[in-house]
Amino acid sequence: MATEISISLGPSPDRREALAKRIRLLVAATITYNVIEAVVALAAGTIASSTALIGFGLDSIIEVSSATAVAWQFSARDHAVREAREQRTLRIIAMSFFALAAYVAFDAVRALTGTGEAERSIPGIVIAALSLAIMPFLSYAQRKAGRELGSASAVADSKQTLLCTYLSAALLVGLVLNATLGWSWADPIAALVIAAIAVKEGRDAWQGKGCCAPTAAAAPSTQADACGCRPGRDCC
Predict the structure, then answer these.
(1) How many Å apart are CA 161 and CA 168, to the nearest integer?
(2) Please, how many CA atoms are within 13 Å of residue 67, restricted to the half-sphere of its CB?
(3) Are 170 and 132 in contact (CB under 8 A)?
(4) Which residues, at least 6 apart from 54, have a Cβ–Cβ distance to it below 8 Å?
(5) Which residues lie closer than 8 Å to 122 by C-beta, 6 or more apart?
């Protein structure tokens, strides 16, 4: 008796469109919030002479460029067109990661060398706390949708949003310690670690690591492939 073998080729066309719509909405929310975040952080940083806050605001602008690239990719209604735009979008995201790492590292070194004393900033603490609360949810939702869809660019952009969470935490700790104990070195040390992570994520995005998109040629297997993914099911 012949045994039927079921091969999963990923989401159905209707499911793909639903996921693409969800990603468009999440990217729009990310862009909107980051624009607000950038304005508040840059203004507060200028008033308080805080290089950390100004760097955080510039990071928000970089994140907007990454999210805009994903929005451009998913603005296409045709799935084939979105796939054709994937590689270019990944390159833009990778460059955004590298730009973020370069600025954060430069800003951290400048802060450690004692270039100016930052004043206490209550608006800065508030915006950092809000970002720490909001960004993980946006990142998780986009990463989940990107994984199911098999979109490496959506997953890579969600990782940049997650990196903003780490930056928010580092900024919040730095601002609070500076305001309460005068420990101005705490934030730049954490920022250097984050810069290293950003370089790794940028390299992965440039190389196209992120998701194993489902393909018709994929053979049914429970074994992970070379990048550690099971086609149509996991992301790297």
Answers:
(1) 11
(2) 28
(3) no
(4) 41, 42, 45, 46, 107
(5) none
Q: How many CB atoms lie within 10 A of CB 123?
A: 15
Calpha distance 133→169 (Å, rounded): 10
**Least confident range of 48-52, 64-68, 196-200, 220-224:** 220-224
Residue range 124-150, pLDDT digits in tens: 899 989 999 998 998 899 898 888 888
CA–CA gap between residue 52 and residue 50 (Å, rounded):
5
Distance CA 150, CA 180 (A): 46
Give the alpha-carbon dihedral of 96, 100, 103, 104, to 10 degrees: 180
Q: Which two tokens stand for residue 214?
A: 């489902």
What's the pLDDT at 118?
66
Alpha helices in the chain (DSSP H): 13-48, 51-74, 79-84, 86-112, 122-149, 152-180, 186-206
What pLDDT, in 10s, does the model give residues 179-235? 888 776 776 777 777 778 778 877 877 776 555 444 433 433 333 333 344 433 444
Beta pairing partners, 235? 211
pTM of the predicted model, to two decimals? 0.69
Assigned token pair, 179: 């305001």
* Cβ proximity of 208 and 90 under 8 Å: yes
Three-class DSSP category at 235: strand
